[in-house]
Amino acid sequence: MSLFESWLPLEINKVVVQTFEDVKSKEKLKAANAIFYFSFKNLNAPPHGLCQDHRVIIRRTTDGLPGHICLDINSCTVFNPVLNN
To answer: From what superkingdom does this record's organism come (predicted)?
Structure first.
């Protein structure tokens, strides 16, 4: 099992897309430059039985040339003892 597979399945709680491009709301995912905010839970709980909430921010930037893309990723784990008791 790969490291990625050990995180499956996920429960995605919320996704927010922010862009300054002039696009319709449902077209924001296709924006060349955008920031994606995800919050999710790993449903494949770790052996110690603690479920953790996770957040990740992904910034996608492009320079307009085909195939040129940059992804900046920042993530954190939030331990919520109220949910894990």
So the answer is: Eukaryota
Instruction: Identify which of 27, 37, 32, 42 has the alpha carbon closest to the alpha carbon of residue 80.
Output: 42
Question: DSSP characters for 7-26?
Answer: G-SEEEEEEEEE--S---GG
**End-to-end CA separation in angstroms for the chain:** 28
Please give the residue range of the domain that contains residue 46: 5-78
Please write the tens of the pLDDT for every residue from 29-68: 888 899 999 998 877 766 665 667 788 999 999 888 888 8
Residue 71 scores a pLDDT above 50:
yes
